[in-house]
């Protein structure tokens, strides 16, 4: 593993380490995959108006989509095995992708392609996404001090994962596993085979235990006492301490719920667009031709395709349910921790 640190520690689970910017990297990758799907669809729709096939309109986007998925799998295995030096491959890939997309974006500007064409907007988004992923990779190098530094930062596994009795792995899995509850599959299979007991469930992680949450709430309450000359009294002081200690996850839960409610509007809008376009019976798109075998369509023309709206509807509903379940989970977990603290 080229200087792996995993051989220096003793762990009992397959996942334990999150590199700096873990959640941001996964979020950017999900957005990248969605933009690449839009780019593939834009190329297919643009190609559909010509008599011959033009693979250059969607094949590069398809290859980039496969590369993005490969990068996620590659990163996950490096992270769980703690091989930070192997991330140098991703550093080179994001650099090359950022440079090539920037060149393509500049060429569009030189040839008079503007915001009215969807492909121009998608290319600009890809430049931003690849640049942000490159920045995340550079930040990992800066924080972990690997490859270019003589003294890399030693990382110890969380105390919870050194305990065989802890089986609640939600805080230590990647963002995709959290969103899909994939980490619970082992527990569900065990419960399906035989009745579960306390030993099967295991111990709670340290961060979720009543003593830990009591200390957090007590520190918030004592901080208020130190700010005021007199001791805080009454329900208002309790509410302030609760908001200080547990306000951040509740705010996160509220944000997830707002996003889910906003995505709820996508269903009626997409269905309305599909019914309108099917009833109209004319999905013919005549894209702008700037040069030979190069077709460009606008965002309005792209969204006038019923198949595109159907795919957007699927993604919107999937994302809506994901945000809704995440909101429920964070709120229930925070409520349990709050009651334990009180």
From TrEMBL:
GO molecular function, one term: sulfonylurea receptor activity
Ranges annotated as spanning the membrane: 26-45, 57-75, 87-106, 118-136, 302-319
Record keyword Transmembrane present: yes
Domain of life of the source: Eukaryota
InterPro entries: ABC1_TM_sf (IPR036640), ABC_transporter_C-like (IPR050173), ABCC8/9 (IPR000388)
Keywords (A to Z) from UniProt: ATP-binding, Glycoprotein, Membrane, Nucleotide-binding, Repeat, Transmembrane, Transmembrane helix
Annotated GO CC locations: membrane
UniProt-listed GO biological process terms: potassium ion transport
UniProt similarity note: Belongs to the ABC transporter superfamily. ABCC family. Conjugate transporter (TC 3.A.1.208) subfamily.
Record protein name field: ABCC8 protein
Native species: Sagittarius serpentarius
